[in-house]
Amino acid sequence: QVQLVESGGGSVQAGGSLRVSCVASERTFSRYTMGWFRQAPGKEREFVAAVRWSGDRPIYADSVKGRFTISRDNAKNSVSLQMNSLKFEDTAVYYCAADRNWPPRAFDYWGQGTQVTVSS
């Protein structure tokens, strides 16, 4: 059972930056694909980014390409999402998730989420 804990959310003005991070309890963290999802009020949860065990070849939703960067540190069991040039529509609860597969097929483990609020 992988436990995931997010941190780093907050409030920022449009155009600003935030970094959210996630720490996993699992000692085999390096075997998992890690992803970030988000859910805005009244909307379905959507994929944001994912990175495989080696940290290379990340994938992104079109809406965040060029603005967000996902990275991982297997030595610290952590994955982060650097968010730059934030827009009002990036406001959402951001969730960290883990999948045993690459490409990702089914994210089986989820964190509780961290709120990101972007004011226009």
Architecture overview:
Strands 2, 4, 5, 6, 9, 10 and 11 form a seven-stranded mixed β-sheet that branches. A four-stranded antiparallel β-sheet has the order 1-3-8-7, with no helix packed on it. It is mostly beta strands. It is built from no helices and eleven strands.
Helix count equals 0
Which ranges are low-confidence, i.e. pLDDT below 50, for 5 or more consecutive residues? none
Total beta-strand segments: 11
Main structural class: mainly beta
**Global morphology:** globular
- Mean pLDDT level: 95
Concise synopsis of the structure shown:
The chain has strands at 4-7, 10-13, 18-24, 33-39, 46-51, 59-60, 68-73, 78-83, 92-99, 109-110, 114-119.
Topology overview:
Elements: E1 4-7, E2 10-13, E3 18-24, E4 33-39, E5 46-51, E6 59-60, E7 68-73, E8 78-83, E9 92-99, E10 109-110, E11 114-119
Parallel strand pairs: 2-11
Antiparallel strand pairs: 1-3, 3-8, 4-5, 4-9, 5-6, 7-8, 9-10, 9-11
Question: Features of this protein?
Answer:
single chain; seven-stranded mixed sheet; 0% helix; 120 residues; 11 strands
